[in-house]
Amino acid sequence: MIAASQATQRPGDAKLLVIDAAGEFRHAARASFAELLHAGDLVIANDAATLPASLGGIHVATGSPVEVRLAGRRSLSVEDVREFSAIVFGPGDFRTRTEDRPAPPVLGPGDRLALGPLSASIECLLGHPRLVRLRFEGSPDAIWSGLARHGRPIQYAHVPVALALWDIWTPIAGPPVAFEPPSAGFAIDWHLVAELHARRVGFATITHAAGISSTGDPALDARLPFDEPYRIPETTAARIRRTRSRGGRIVAIGTTVVRALEHAAREGVIHAGEGLATQRIGPATRLRAVDVILSGTHEPGTSHYELLRAFASDATLERATRELDSHGYRTHEFGDSVWIEKVGQAVPPASPACGRFSLTF
Predict the structure, then answer these.
(1) Fewer Cβ close by (within 10 Å): the C or N end of the chain?
(2) Looking at the structure, do residues 177 and 308 belong to the same domain, yes or no?
(3) Which pLDDT belongs to residue 347?
(4) Same domain (yes/no): 146, 165
(5) Cα distance between residue 89 and residue 87, in whole Å
(6) Could you give the maximum distance between any two Cα atoms of the chain, in Å?
(7) How high is the mean pLDDT of the chain?
(8) 261 to each of 168, 205, 225, how far by Cα in Å?
(9) Is residue 359, in this structure, part of any structural domain at all?
(10) pLDDT category, 157, cuts 50, 70, 90?
(11) How far is residue 275's CA from residue 75's CA, in Å, rounded to a whole number?
């Protein structure tokens, strides 16, 4: 696959690899996405807008430059904005590959960081020398203002030009809660929504705080995805129940939608409300809520690829990787897409919830 280096959300030549429930493959234009849908299906997208979550600043005790990338929070509340989990880098910016970035100074509880107009302190380390729980000083309004004035989108070296915030907001973006864009939603625009309506296909949204996709550290990357809060509106929950009762399919636009819906469905019927997605979805997961995913192209070994293993066998995904490579598909957030229908599965009985260590708090 080729790294997508242009910040174009809906290029005219965007490709779509279609993998149906029988494991059959075909290549299509992504613009033909709606043709894959059936009357009575329900398409669900993540309406999270992306925060300017990359903050340059100084480690006060040493005077060393750092970059802080906000990575998680406990809820979607606009008032709950003082505490974040964050990854700290040494000097540099997105022009250097994440895995080549220098480490920050040795960090510890009580360390203060001056981040433009914002001041923050490290409350504790979260099991790794660069993963911290960070607490901002000031009122929620002051913190939001500081993020807006000083922050930049989290960005990686495959896009060589600095991104503006509007480059990574999906057309349906709403609450600013994502740390990186729910980029599968770049394929959606209001013309497509109108076409879905004409085809008698439903469209609904959830809000999920999409997390970071890479830390540059193999040990940290192995812990992705971090815990992520989400909200399911009552109208969306009702439409899911109605679609299920009528035999329609639930089509998730992106891995974040899958994660939110499958977490909400772990006890059976999806209800409206807020939650914290703590689970990891992979080959052992029995999908309860989602039938089809429209996703970006993902490389083996990433957490996004692991999620796709819940929809298709390893042999199918290995063939998909070969198809993507041989046909010059583009990867990363501005890349091409895949459509994967899950093979029919028997839904197992709900299991009791068990405790786990939270990577965020």
Answers:
(1) C
(2) yes
(3) 38
(4) no
(5) 7
(6) 62
(7) 93
(8) 23, 11, 15
(9) no
(10) very high
(11) 8
Cβ distance 292 to 315 under 8 Å? no
Helices (H) and strands (E) in the chain, counts: 7, 19
Q: Give me the domain span that covers residue 277.
A: 2-50+161-341
Q: 3-state secondary structure string, 235-262?
A: HHHHHHHHHHHCCCCEEEECHHHHHHHH
Whether pLDDT at 263 is above 50: yes
Q: Is the pTM of this model over 0.90?
A: yes
193 and 131 inside one domain: no
Cα 103 to Cα 39, 53, 92, 225: the distances in Å are 52, 19, 10, 21
Q: What is the DSSP string of 193-247?
A: HHHHHHTT-EEEEEEE----S--S-HHHHTTPSPPEEEEE-HHHHHHHHHHHHTT
Half-sphere exposure of 327 (CA within 13 A, CB side): 21
Look at residues 301, 329, 292 and name the one whose alpha carbon lies nearest to residue 213: 301
Give the tens place of pLDDT for each residue, 38-66.
999 999 999 999 999 999 999 999 999 99
Q: Return the residue matching tokens 């309406």.
A: 47
At residue 354, the pLDDT reads: 33
How far apart, in whole angstroms, are the C-alpha atoms of residue 10 and residue 5?
13
Domain boundary among 93, 128, 150: 150
Clarify whether residues 260 and 133 are in a common domain: no
E strand intervals along the chain: 2-3, 15-19, 25-29, 42-46, 49-50, 54-59, 64-72, 83-89, 112-115, 118-128, 131-136, 176-178, 202-208, 228-232, 250-253, 273-277, 292-296, 330-331, 337-341
pLDDT at residue 40 in the model: 98
- Single-letter amino acid, residue 131: L
Residue 331 token pair: 């990867």
